[in-house]
Amino acid sequence: MLSLIRPLQSAESSERNLRVPLFVEKPPKITDVPAKLVPLEVLPPQPAQFAPSSTPAEGAPIHALSALVLVAVDSLWLVFDWVPPVWIVAIPFCFVAVFLPTFLIQKHLKKDSNGRALTFATLLAVLAAIPIPIAGTPVGLGLLAWTGLGKLLGKSSHK
After folding, report:
1. Residue 23 neighbours by CB under 8 Å, 6+ apart
2. How confident is the model at residue 152 (pLDDT cuts 50, 70, 90)?
3. pLDDT tens-place string over residues 42-70
4. Secondary structure string (H, E, C) spanning 23-55
5. Of the candidates 1, 45, 7, the residue with the CA atom closest to the CA atom of residue 25
6. How does 5-41 read in b/e, with b if 16+ C-beta sit within 10 Å?
7. Distance CA 134, CA 76 (A)
8. Pick from 19, 24, 108: which is nearest to 66 by CA?
9. Taking Cα atoms as reference points, which of 64, 54, 59 lies closest to residue 143?
10. Is the alpha carbon torsion for 36, 37, 43, 48 positive or negative?
């Protein structure tokens, strides 16, 4: 029989050695117990209750003025792009210059909750703080299309 045994000190009595096997040649026996039948309870479906939304379901989630603030501040990276030492000041400036107006626009004009306005303000501020102009990239174009900036610029009316 091959088994390893090591002594352990008991907390109750340090004089007594306990031997605990680490390896066992045969696995322990598991008794066969028949499975129990458990009664199944099925509840009737409950009608879906929707929480009242603080914003209308239609329309863009980001106000067009928030997107315009992002485009305006983001275009400053064309100037800052060639002067990396200025980035120490420019990155926090761009973040704050987009975060504050976007939060206020989303909160008061779009009537978003504090959490939702904070989320969109943070998202747009982080995008503005990236030291490249993103408005001309596919990410920037997708974001501008998602915000519905075309509504702010106006549409041509079809008769």
Report:
1. 2, 3, 4
2. low
3. 888 888 776 555 544 457 788 888 888 98
4. CCCCCCCCCCCCCCCCCCCCCCCCCCCCCCCCC
5. 1
6. eeeeeeeeeeeeeeeeeeeeeeeeeeeeeeeeeeeee
7. 11
8. 108
9. 64
10. positive
